[in-house]
Amino acid sequence: MTTVSSSSASMPAGPAGEATASVPQTLAGFRIGVTSDRRSEDLICAFRRRGAEVMHAPALRIVALTESVTLQQDTRRVIEAAPDFAIITTAYGMRRWSEAADTYGLSTELFETLEKATILVRGPKARGAVRAAGLDDDGSAEDERTATVVEMLLTRDVRDKTVALQQHGASDDSQIHRLKAAGATVVTVLPYTWTKPDEDSDLLRMIDAVIERQLDLVTFTAAPAVEAFLSVARQYGRFEALVAALRGDVVSVAVGAVTAGPLYDAGLSPIIPSRWRLGAMIKLVCDHLEEHQTLRISTRHGPVELRGSEVRVPQVTDEAVRLPPGPLSLMRALVKAEGAVLSRDHLMQVLGQCDSEHALEMWVSRLRKSLPVTGLVSTVVKRGYRLAV
Protein backbone atom coordinates (compact mmCIF):
# COMPACT_ATOMS: atom_id res chain seq x y z
CA MET A 1 0.00 0.00 0.00
CA THR A 2 1.38 3.39 -0.98
CA THR A 3 1.64 5.97 1.78
CA VAL A 4 1.06 9.60 0.91
CA SER A 5 4.21 11.43 1.87
CA SER A 6 5.33 15.02 1.68
CA SER A 7 8.94 14.45 2.60
CA SER A 8 10.23 15.29 -0.88
CA ALA A 9 8.97 18.86 -0.61
CA SER A 10 9.33 20.64 2.69
CA MET A 11 7.13 23.59 3.60
CA PRO A 12 9.11 26.82 3.40
CA ALA A 13 9.73 28.65 6.63
CA GLY A 14 8.81 32.26 7.18
CA PRO A 15 5.67 34.35 7.10
CA ALA A 16 3.72 31.96 4.88
CA GLY A 17 4.10 29.16 7.38
CA GLU A 18 3.49 31.43 10.37
CA ALA A 19 0.19 32.69 8.95
CA THR A 20 -1.38 29.21 8.85
CA ALA A 21 -3.74 29.86 11.76
CA SER A 22 -5.28 32.86 10.00
CA VAL A 23 -6.02 30.95 6.77
CA PRO A 24 -9.35 29.08 6.59
CA GLN A 25 -8.71 25.33 6.55
CA THR A 26 -10.75 24.82 3.38
CA LEU A 27 -8.62 21.86 2.28
CA ALA A 28 -8.55 19.98 5.59
CA GLY A 29 -8.96 16.26 4.96
CA PHE A 30 -7.93 16.43 1.31
CA ARG A 31 -4.82 14.88 -0.24
CA ILE A 32 -3.27 16.69 -3.21
CA GLY A 33 -0.51 15.64 -5.60
CA VAL A 34 1.85 18.29 -7.02
CA THR A 35 3.83 17.35 -10.15
CA SER A 36 5.57 20.66 -10.88
CA ASP A 37 9.20 21.55 -10.29
CA ARG A 38 9.48 25.31 -10.69
CA ARG A 39 7.31 27.21 -8.19
CA SER A 40 6.28 23.93 -6.57
CA GLU A 41 6.96 25.40 -3.13
CA ASP A 42 4.35 28.10 -3.82
CA LEU A 43 1.71 25.45 -4.53
CA ILE A 44 2.74 23.16 -1.70
CA CYS A 45 2.76 25.99 0.83
CA ALA A 46 -0.63 27.31 -0.34
CA PHE A 47 -2.27 23.89 -0.10
CA ARG A 48 -0.73 23.00 3.27
CA ARG A 49 -1.66 26.35 4.78
CA ARG A 50 -5.26 25.52 3.93
CA GLY A 51 -5.03 22.15 5.66
CA ALA A 52 -4.28 19.75 2.80
CA GLU A 53 -1.84 16.87 2.90
CA VAL A 54 0.52 17.22 -0.04
CA MET A 55 2.51 14.67 -2.02
CA HIS A 56 5.23 16.11 -4.27
CA ALA A 57 6.86 14.27 -7.16
CA PRO A 58 8.19 16.42 -10.03
CA ALA A 59 7.45 14.75 -13.35
CA LEU A 60 10.21 16.82 -14.96
CA ARG A 61 12.87 19.13 -13.62
CA ILE A 62 13.85 22.46 -15.15
CA VAL A 63 17.56 23.00 -15.79
CA ALA A 64 18.70 26.54 -16.59
CA LEU A 65 21.36 26.59 -19.31
CA THR A 66 23.04 29.83 -18.23
CA GLU A 67 26.48 28.20 -18.29
CA SER A 68 25.83 26.41 -21.58
CA VAL A 69 28.29 27.06 -24.41
CA THR A 70 25.45 26.36 -26.85
CA LEU A 71 23.27 29.11 -25.35
CA GLN A 72 26.18 31.53 -25.57
CA GLN A 73 26.75 30.64 -29.22
CA ASP A 74 23.03 30.89 -30.01
CA THR A 75 22.84 34.30 -28.32
CA ARG A 76 25.73 35.54 -30.46
CA ARG A 77 23.98 34.09 -33.52
CA VAL A 78 20.79 36.03 -32.70
CA ILE A 79 22.76 39.27 -32.30
CA GLU A 80 24.61 38.71 -35.58
CA ALA A 81 21.38 37.81 -37.41
CA ALA A 82 19.70 41.10 -36.41
CA PRO A 83 16.23 39.49 -36.54
CA ASP A 84 13.24 41.33 -37.92
CA PHE A 85 10.93 39.51 -35.51
CA ALA A 86 11.39 37.88 -32.11
CA ILE A 87 9.02 35.44 -30.40
CA ILE A 88 9.25 35.25 -26.61
CA THR A 89 7.37 32.23 -25.30
CA THR A 90 7.91 32.28 -21.52
CA ALA A 91 8.73 34.78 -18.80
CA TYR A 92 11.12 32.30 -17.20
CA GLY A 93 12.94 31.82 -20.51
CA MET A 94 13.22 35.56 -21.10
CA ARG A 95 14.65 36.11 -17.62
CA ARG A 96 17.13 33.23 -17.91
CA TRP A 97 18.21 34.43 -21.36
CA SER A 98 18.76 37.98 -20.10
CA GLU A 99 20.77 36.69 -17.13
CA ALA A 100 22.84 34.45 -19.39
CA ALA A 101 23.55 37.34 -21.80
CA ASP A 102 24.73 39.41 -18.85
CA THR A 103 27.05 36.56 -17.81
CA TYR A 104 28.51 36.42 -21.34
CA GLY A 105 28.97 40.20 -21.48
CA LEU A 106 26.37 40.39 -24.25
CA SER A 107 23.54 42.08 -22.35
CA THR A 108 23.73 45.46 -24.12
CA GLU A 109 24.09 43.92 -27.58
CA LEU A 110 21.14 41.58 -27.01
CA PHE A 111 18.96 44.42 -25.70
CA GLU A 112 19.75 46.59 -28.73
CA THR A 113 19.06 43.66 -31.07
CA LEU A 114 15.67 42.89 -29.54
CA GLU A 115 14.78 46.58 -29.32
CA LYS A 116 15.07 46.83 -33.12
CA ALA A 117 12.97 43.70 -33.69
CA THR A 118 9.18 43.37 -33.68
CA ILE A 119 8.49 41.26 -30.60
CA LEU A 120 5.51 38.93 -30.23
CA VAL A 121 4.82 37.16 -26.94
CA ARG A 122 2.96 33.98 -26.04
CA GLY A 123 1.02 35.44 -23.11
CA PRO A 124 0.81 38.01 -20.29
CA LYS A 125 3.67 36.53 -18.25
CA ALA A 126 6.04 36.62 -21.22
CA ARG A 127 4.87 40.18 -21.92
CA GLY A 128 5.66 41.13 -18.32
CA ALA A 129 9.20 39.76 -18.62
CA VAL A 130 9.75 41.58 -21.91
CA ARG A 131 8.61 44.87 -20.41
CA ALA A 132 10.65 44.27 -17.26
CA ALA A 133 13.68 44.09 -19.56
CA GLY A 134 12.80 47.55 -20.89
CA LEU A 135 11.37 46.31 -24.19
CA ASP A 136 7.94 46.52 -25.83
CA ASP A 137 5.95 43.84 -27.63
CA ASP A 138 3.70 44.10 -30.65
CA GLY A 139 1.12 41.46 -29.76
CA SER A 140 0.19 38.46 -27.62
CA ALA A 141 -1.64 35.19 -28.23
CA GLU A 142 -4.99 35.12 -26.42
CA ASP A 143 -4.78 31.35 -25.90
CA GLU A 144 -1.10 31.52 -24.86
CA ARG A 145 -0.01 28.96 -27.47
CA THR A 146 3.20 29.19 -29.46
CA ALA A 147 1.30 27.97 -32.53
CA THR A 148 -1.02 30.97 -32.26
CA VAL A 149 1.90 33.40 -32.03
CA VAL A 150 3.35 31.84 -35.17
CA GLU A 151 -0.04 32.20 -36.89
CA MET A 152 -0.07 35.88 -35.93
CA LEU A 153 3.38 36.29 -37.42
CA LEU A 154 2.46 34.44 -40.60
CA THR A 155 -0.25 37.02 -41.32
CA ARG A 156 2.67 39.33 -42.05
CA ASP A 157 5.16 38.90 -44.85
CA VAL A 158 8.01 36.89 -43.35
CA ARG A 159 9.61 35.83 -46.63
CA ASP A 160 13.33 36.65 -46.52
CA LYS A 161 12.88 37.88 -42.94
CA THR A 162 14.70 36.56 -39.88
CA VAL A 163 12.80 35.34 -36.82
CA ALA A 164 14.40 34.75 -33.41
CA LEU A 165 12.48 32.14 -31.41
CA GLN A 166 12.97 31.69 -27.67
CA GLN A 167 12.04 28.08 -27.05
CA HIS A 168 10.79 26.63 -23.79
CA GLY A 169 12.18 23.34 -22.56
CA ALA A 170 12.65 21.64 -25.93
CA SER A 171 12.89 22.39 -29.61
CA ASP A 172 9.50 23.18 -31.16
CA ASP A 173 10.26 21.67 -34.56
CA SER A 174 6.73 21.98 -35.94
CA GLN A 175 6.62 25.76 -35.43
CA ILE A 176 10.15 26.19 -36.79
CA HIS A 177 9.09 24.26 -39.88
CA ARG A 178 6.02 26.50 -40.38
CA LEU A 179 8.16 29.63 -40.27
CA LYS A 180 10.76 28.21 -42.64
CA ALA A 181 8.04 27.00 -45.02
CA ALA A 182 6.83 30.61 -45.21
CA GLY A 183 10.30 31.70 -46.32
CA ALA A 184 11.70 32.94 -43.01
CA THR A 185 15.14 32.31 -41.60
CA VAL A 186 14.83 31.07 -38.02
CA VAL A 187 17.40 31.40 -35.24
CA THR A 188 16.58 29.78 -31.92
CA VAL A 189 17.66 29.98 -28.30
CA LEU A 190 16.91 27.51 -25.53
CA PRO A 191 17.55 29.19 -22.14
CA TYR A 192 16.42 26.14 -20.14
CA THR A 193 15.51 22.54 -20.71
CA TRP A 194 13.40 19.79 -19.17
CA THR A 195 15.07 16.70 -17.72
CA LYS A 196 13.62 13.56 -16.19
CA PRO A 197 14.34 12.92 -12.49
CA ASP A 198 17.28 10.58 -11.85
CA GLU A 199 14.85 7.87 -10.78
CA ASP A 200 11.18 7.17 -11.42
CA SER A 201 10.53 6.05 -7.82
CA ASP A 202 8.90 9.27 -6.52
CA LEU A 203 6.69 9.60 -9.59
CA LEU A 204 5.75 5.92 -9.40
CA ARG A 205 4.72 6.39 -5.77
CA MET A 206 2.44 9.23 -6.83
CA ILE A 207 1.00 7.19 -9.71
CA ASP A 208 0.29 4.33 -7.30
CA ALA A 209 -1.26 6.78 -4.83
CA VAL A 210 -3.64 7.95 -7.57
CA ILE A 211 -4.51 4.38 -8.55
CA GLU A 212 -5.15 3.42 -4.91
CA ARG A 213 -7.27 6.56 -4.41
CA GLN A 214 -4.89 7.91 -1.76
CA LEU A 215 -5.02 11.28 -3.50
CA ASP A 216 -8.12 13.36 -4.14
CA LEU A 217 -6.60 15.64 -6.75
CA VAL A 218 -3.43 16.04 -8.85
CA THR A 219 -2.17 19.36 -10.23
CA PHE A 220 -0.27 19.91 -13.48
CA THR A 221 1.42 23.14 -14.58
CA ALA A 222 3.19 22.15 -17.83
CA ALA A 223 2.25 19.95 -20.78
CA PRO A 224 5.67 18.21 -20.92
CA ALA A 225 5.22 17.23 -17.26
CA VAL A 226 1.82 15.70 -18.05
CA GLU A 227 3.37 13.73 -20.90
CA ALA A 228 6.17 12.50 -18.64
CA PHE A 229 3.67 11.52 -15.93
CA LEU A 230 1.60 9.46 -18.36
CA SER A 231 4.71 8.02 -20.03
CA VAL A 232 6.06 6.63 -16.75
CA ALA A 233 2.66 5.06 -16.06
CA ARG A 234 2.77 3.38 -19.49
CA GLN A 235 6.36 2.24 -18.99
CA TYR A 236 5.49 0.42 -15.77
CA GLY A 237 2.16 -1.02 -16.91
CA ARG A 238 0.00 1.32 -14.83
CA PHE A 239 -1.49 3.54 -17.54
CA GLU A 240 -4.96 1.98 -17.75
CA ALA A 241 -5.38 1.89 -13.97
CA LEU A 242 -4.13 5.49 -13.69
CA VAL A 243 -6.55 6.76 -16.34
CA ALA A 244 -9.42 4.86 -14.70
CA ALA A 245 -8.67 6.57 -11.38
CA LEU A 246 -8.42 10.01 -13.02
CA ARG A 247 -11.75 9.43 -14.75
CA GLY A 248 -13.35 8.48 -11.46
CA ASP A 249 -12.46 9.46 -7.90
CA VAL A 250 -9.28 11.50 -8.49
CA VAL A 251 -9.54 14.98 -10.03
CA SER A 252 -6.93 16.24 -12.50
CA VAL A 253 -6.28 20.00 -12.57
CA ALA A 254 -4.34 21.83 -15.29
CA VAL A 255 -3.19 25.42 -14.96
CA GLY A 256 -4.27 26.18 -18.54
CA ALA A 257 -5.48 24.81 -21.85
CA VAL A 258 -1.97 24.09 -23.17
CA THR A 259 -1.14 22.03 -20.09
CA ALA A 260 -4.47 20.22 -20.36
CA GLY A 261 -3.79 19.07 -23.93
CA PRO A 262 -2.11 15.72 -23.12
CA LEU A 263 -4.81 14.99 -20.52
CA TYR A 264 -7.52 15.49 -23.13
CA ASP A 265 -5.55 13.26 -25.50
CA ALA A 266 -5.66 10.53 -22.84
CA GLY A 267 -9.45 10.79 -22.67
CA LEU A 268 -9.53 12.74 -19.41
CA SER A 269 -11.52 15.84 -18.46
CA PRO A 270 -9.30 18.06 -16.30
CA ILE A 271 -10.65 21.15 -14.62
CA ILE A 272 -9.00 24.43 -15.67
CA PRO A 273 -9.18 27.90 -14.07
CA SER A 274 -10.67 30.70 -16.16
CA ARG A 275 -7.40 32.62 -15.68
CA TRP A 276 -4.38 30.46 -16.44
CA ARG A 277 -2.40 31.39 -13.33
CA LEU A 278 -1.27 29.56 -10.20
CA GLY A 279 -3.37 31.76 -7.92
CA ALA A 280 -6.49 31.05 -9.95
CA MET A 281 -5.67 27.34 -9.93
CA ILE A 282 -5.34 27.32 -6.14
CA LYS A 283 -8.75 29.00 -5.81
CA LEU A 284 -10.27 26.53 -8.27
CA VAL A 285 -8.89 23.60 -6.25
CA CYS A 286 -10.41 24.98 -3.04
CA ASP A 287 -13.78 25.72 -4.66
CA HIS A 288 -14.01 22.42 -6.52
CA LEU A 289 -13.13 20.23 -3.54
CA GLU A 290 -15.58 22.11 -1.31
CA GLU A 291 -18.40 21.94 -3.86
CA HIS A 292 -17.90 18.51 -5.42
CA GLN A 293 -15.74 16.43 -3.08
CA THR A 294 -17.25 17.39 0.28
CA LEU A 295 -20.29 15.26 1.17
CA ARG A 296 -22.73 16.01 3.98
CA ILE A 297 -25.69 14.04 5.34
CA SER A 298 -27.95 14.18 8.41
CA THR A 299 -28.09 10.92 10.37
CA ARG A 300 -29.51 9.61 13.65
CA HIS A 301 -26.18 10.54 15.19
CA GLY A 302 -26.26 14.09 13.87
CA PRO A 303 -24.67 15.62 10.78
CA VAL A 304 -21.86 13.68 9.10
CA GLU A 305 -19.32 15.34 6.82
CA LEU A 306 -16.94 13.52 4.50
CA ARG A 307 -14.06 15.73 3.33
CA GLY A 308 -11.52 13.91 1.23
CA SER A 309 -10.33 11.03 3.39
CA GLU A 310 -11.69 12.40 6.68
CA VAL A 311 -15.06 11.83 8.35
CA ARG A 312 -16.43 14.25 10.90
CA VAL A 313 -19.34 13.59 13.27
CA PRO A 314 -19.29 16.89 15.20
CA GLN A 315 -22.06 15.99 17.68
CA VAL A 316 -19.99 13.00 18.80
CA THR A 317 -16.42 14.34 18.66
CA ASP A 318 -14.46 17.32 17.40
CA GLU A 319 -11.79 14.99 16.04
CA ALA A 320 -11.79 14.02 12.36
CA VAL A 321 -11.25 10.35 11.50
CA ARG A 322 -8.96 9.46 8.59
CA LEU A 323 -10.26 6.47 6.62
CA PRO A 324 -8.11 4.06 4.58
CA PRO A 325 -8.86 3.87 0.82
CA GLY A 326 -11.23 0.85 0.80
CA PRO A 327 -13.50 1.89 3.68
CA LEU A 328 -13.33 5.47 2.36
CA SER A 329 -14.76 4.40 -1.01
CA LEU A 330 -17.47 2.46 0.81
CA MET A 331 -18.34 5.41 3.06
CA ARG A 332 -18.52 7.72 0.05
CA ALA A 333 -20.95 5.37 -1.71
CA LEU A 334 -23.15 5.10 1.39
CA VAL A 335 -23.25 8.88 1.92
CA LYS A 336 -24.15 9.47 -1.73
CA ALA A 337 -26.99 6.94 -1.38
CA GLU A 338 -28.54 9.23 1.31
CA GLY A 339 -29.80 6.36 3.45
CA ALA A 340 -30.95 4.09 0.63
CA VAL A 341 -29.96 0.43 0.85
CA LEU A 342 -27.04 -0.56 -1.38
CA SER A 343 -26.92 -4.24 -2.28
CA ARG A 344 -23.72 -6.25 -2.01
CA ASP A 345 -23.69 -6.80 -5.77
CA HIS A 346 -24.06 -3.08 -6.42
CA LEU A 347 -21.27 -2.21 -3.99
CA MET A 348 -18.91 -4.75 -5.54
CA GLN A 349 -19.64 -3.18 -8.92
CA VAL A 350 -19.01 0.42 -7.92
CA LEU A 351 -16.09 -0.20 -5.55
CA GLY A 352 -13.26 -0.83 -7.97
CA GLN A 353 -10.92 -2.89 -5.78
CA CYS A 354 -13.59 -4.87 -3.92
CA ASP A 355 -14.07 -8.09 -5.91
CA SER A 356 -15.72 -10.51 -3.47
CA GLU A 357 -18.33 -10.60 -0.70
CA HIS A 358 -15.60 -11.47 1.77
CA ALA A 359 -13.60 -8.37 0.78
CA LEU A 360 -16.74 -6.25 1.09
CA GLU A 361 -17.46 -7.63 4.56
CA MET A 362 -13.89 -6.80 5.59
CA TRP A 363 -14.31 -3.23 4.31
CA VAL A 364 -17.59 -2.85 6.21
CA SER A 365 -15.94 -4.17 9.37
CA ARG A 366 -12.96 -1.82 9.02
CA LEU A 367 -15.26 1.13 8.33
CA ARG A 368 -17.35 0.46 11.42
CA LYS A 369 -14.25 0.15 13.60
CA SER A 370 -12.86 3.42 12.20
CA LEU A 371 -15.97 5.54 12.72
CA PRO A 372 -16.27 7.50 15.99
CA VAL A 373 -19.81 6.22 16.61
CA THR A 374 -21.32 2.74 16.48
CA GLY A 375 -24.46 2.04 14.50
CA LEU A 376 -23.83 4.57 11.74
CA VAL A 377 -23.50 1.82 9.12
CA SER A 378 -26.48 -0.55 9.27
CA THR A 379 -26.85 -4.03 7.82
CA VAL A 380 -30.19 -4.70 6.16
CA VAL A 381 -30.63 -8.48 6.32
CA LYS A 382 -30.49 -10.18 2.91
CA ARG A 383 -30.41 -6.80 1.18
CA GLY A 384 -27.18 -4.91 1.89
CA TYR A 385 -25.99 -1.84 3.79
CA ARG A 386 -27.16 1.70 4.46
CA LEU A 387 -26.42 4.69 6.66
CA ALA A 388 -28.64 5.13 9.70
CA VAL A 389 -30.39 8.35 8.68
TrEMBL record:
Keywords: DNA-binding. One of its GO terms (molecular function) is DNA binding. Pfam families: HEM4, Trans_reg_C. CDD domains: HemD. One of its GO terms (biological process) is uroporphyrinogen III biosynthetic process. Residues 1-20 are annotated as: Disordered. Residues 318-387 form the OmpR/PhoB-type domain. SMART domains: Trans_reg_C. NCBIfam families: PRK07239.1 (NF005568). This is Uroporphyrinogen-III synthase. It comes from Nesterenkonia aurantiaca.
